[in-house]
Design a protein that fits this description.
The chain is an alpha/beta fold and 363 residues long. It folds into two domains: 161 residues, Rossmann fold; 195 residues, Dihydrodipicolinate Reductase, domain 2 (2-Layer Sandwich). 36% of the residues lie in helices and 26% in strands. The chain has 13 helices and 17 strands. It is globular. 45% of the residues are buried. It holds the Pfam family GFO_IDH_MocA.
Length: 363
């Protein structure tokens, strides 16, 4: 084992999905990670992917996913496969003592996720889902304001959106609209972010109840293309969150968190407008002036710089945990599996509410 491999976590990638290009770049940017192997269902496709992305000649190219899992020179794998394949390949990876960065949504329902997490716990390997925005320093900065009772006060209302104007070829052919591959559609692909943001703002306290609104749009195969839902917390004080996610609307990634004393707003919470910096608006103590012809304060724009893009920070944190397990005998962090499981529970509740005719589902 050379000095470089000792210092870094060696990654393999299972599959050549488009998102794998972004994560491969993130692995290259992260100071404690290196890409060692890539696999597709055919070696020719993997070779083409490697060439298109200018992977170094040292990256091993395989024509099956099993070969990456059997490679002793791979510590961890990134899995961007369709959700329906996650249980099989994540469990197999854990059984071969590979740490797994699993693309979201992590499972079709919580029973599948529990099978995955049980495999990771029994084999002592790290699990994390691919929610990149959680690793941006802006997220930590916002969290510091949410944690301060003197800033915005108890949270009363959260609103988030994740929408994109999918072209006809996406709506016809993308795996995210195929029931046999990613049957959750927009609920899994887009609502994962909005549900996750609502839970994050509430310190990962599960809501009391979840209700899908009746404006859901499905394709001919029954896959969700657009959905709106509400989450309600009644303790320690009442908080309402609304989410709207759609493949049919103009691009939006809004997050608004309103407390009794102030509010936070950002319009690019999933993918920042720029790689090297991000911002959010903070408004505290706002009132209308006399005659209600204006406001007494304007929002403060808070800027947060970052040396690495959020996806590289995600890889860096995941690699730190994996290296600690490999080199120091540490136990895997339970933080990230718990976050994924709570997000999945709410995704399941929204789906159940739809099946019940948009009745509230208690958690």
């Amino acid at each position: 084992m050379d000095d470089n491999s000792i210092k870094t976590v060696r990654f393999g990638i299972l599959g050549c999905a488009n998102i794998a290009r972004k994560v491969a770049r993130a692995i290259a940017l992260a100071p404690n990670a290196t890409l060692c192997a890539i696999a597709s269902r055919s070696k020719e496709k993997a070779e083409k992917f490697a060439a298109e992305n200018a992977f170094p000649a040292s990256v091993r190219i395989y024509g099956s996913y099993d070969q990456v899992l059997e490679d002793p020179g791979v510590d961890a794998v990134y899995v961007p496969l369709p959700t329906a394949l996650h249980v099989r390949w994540a469990v197999m990876a854990a059984a071969r003592n590979k740490h797994v960065l699993l693309e979201k949504p992590v499972a079709l329902h919580v029973a599948d996720l529990d099978r995955i997490l049980e495999a990771f716990e029994s084999n002592g390997v790290q699990f994390m889902d691919g929610s990149m925005w959680l690793h941006h320093p802006r997220t930590a900065r916002i969290q510091s304001f949410l944690s301060s009772s003197n800033t915005i006060g108890p949270i009363r209302f959260i609103h988030s959106t994740s929408t994109m104007p999918a072209p006809p070829e996406f709506l016809e052919n993308d795996i995210r609209v195929k029931p046999e591959l990613d049957g959750l559609g927009a609920l899994g692909d887009l609502a994962w972010y909005c549900i996750g943001a609502s839970l994050w703002a509430k310190g990962y306290q599960l809501p009391t109840s979840v209700t899908a609104l009746p404006d859901v749009t499905r394709n001919n195969a029954g896959v969700i293309l657009s959905i709106t839902a509400s989450l309600l917390w009644d303790q320690p004080h009442q908080t309402l969150a609304t989410i709207h996610c759609s493949f049919l609307s103009h691009t939006s990634m809004d997050l608004a968190i309103c407390g009794s004393n102030g509010s936070l707003h950002l319009r690019d919470f999933i993918i920042p407008y720029h790689e090297t910096s991000a911002s959010f608006d903070l408004t505290v103590g706002a009132k209308f002036v006399d005659l209600h012809i204006g406001w007494n304060v304007r929002p403060e724009e808070v800027h947060v710089a970052t040396e690495l893009p959020q996806e590289a920070l995600m890889v860096q944190e995941f690699s730190r945990l994996a290296a600690s397990i490999r080199d120091c005998g540490s136990r895997p962090s339970t933080k990230w599996p718990e976050i994924s499981r709570k997000t999945q529970l709410v995704v399941d509740a929204v789906k159940k509410s739809l099946e019940l005719g948009c009745k509230p589902v208690c958690l």
